[in-house]
Design brief:
The structure is a homodimer. Chain A is of the alpha+beta class. Chain A is built from five helices and five strands, in the order H-H-H-E-E-E-E-H-E-H. In chain A, a hairpin with a 4-residue loop joins strand 1 and strand 2. In chain A, helix 1 crosses helix 3. The longest helix of chain A has 13 residues. At the A-B interface, helix 4 and strand 5 of A face helix 4 and strand 5 of B. Strand 5 of chain A pairs antiparallel with strand 5 of chain B, so a sheet runs across the interface. The structure holds zinc ion (4 copies). Chain A binds a DNA duplex through helix 1 and helix 3.
Chain lengths: 132, 132
DNA sequence: TCGTATATTGTTATAATATAACGTTATGTA
DNA sequence: TACATAACGTTATATTATAACAATATACGA
């Protein structure tokens, strides 16, 4: 079997929903909202999310246990991600900065190891929240 | 009341246990192991962990939902952390690299924002696992 | 087109992670 | 002392995620 080219029914439904949100969604909130489309159980959502994360269409915000659609056509494979997270309003933005990604992809630790895969989460206050 | 100077009883018990482990521990594994010392409920462990994370003695490995003692005397405040994680044996190492931390602390996103707080997780294979 | 391997689905139950809500006790400070 | 804050203890519950099993769909070569 070839590497999957097209998304399955459940994968499409979940991706559609997450893309429309424009912000990270929790798995059970996704579940609740796609129940009218036939996905009844958590596993159906988690399985779709797993695949979508694997192929880079969706990223998991680890510190929030939430899922957001990729806004960065560069990370077709979900192995090098960076986000900024507002600690007040929880707004999350995917960072698309080639200098940063180059720096991190080329980073060598003290033992000389390189890592092509990473996840970086910045925390602070977004502009709106800073001006309150 | 002053900013806390000394750890409380439960905080000491949990920190002791996590420091001896030398690897990330799950909250419920900590709970199980400190029950002989009197911590009976999850909340007792989670509250101690919360405080210890807040003061930088312990870090949470977000992608693993696990907790590890800080090996880096520099991050007395737990706001700028970096780890390497082996995807095969799950070995986790805290990265202590001043160039990296300077680069990330000074990083400005496209809107000009800086973030003093971040968490970075690198993924790959540790030396042992690579040579298998 | 048949056989086979792999991917996806559907379903129920359960595991693992984390917090709410309440009241009590300890500790620091005026 | 009186007051505020921090820590503790306890029970119940919320939230996040996976195990296990059976069925169906899809791709592809013989
Ligand atoms: Zn992306
Ligand atoms: Zn904000
Ligand atoms: Zn540290
Ligand atoms: Zn390893």
């Amino acid at each position: 079997m070839q590497k999957q080219q097209y998304l399955s029914k459940n994968q499409k439904i979940v991706l559609d929903h997450v893309e429309k949100a424009n912000q990270p969604l929790k798995a059970y909130s996704i579940l609740y909202n796609v129940q009218k489309k036939g996905l009844k159980a958590p596993l159906q959502v988690y399985r779709a999310l797993d695949k979508l994360v694997e192929i880079g269409k969706i990223h998991k915000i680890e510190s929030r246990n939430a899922f957001v659609a990729c806004k960065n056509s560069n990370c077709l494979v979900s192995n090098a991600t960076a986000f900024s997270i507002c600690e007040s309003c929880e707004k999350v933005t995917e960072i698309n900065n080639s200098k940063l990604s180059k720096y991190l992809s080329n980073f060598e630790d003290n033992s000389g190891m390189k890592y092509s895969k990473y996840n970086l989460e910045f925390f602070g206050l977004c502009k709106k929240c800073k001006n309150k």
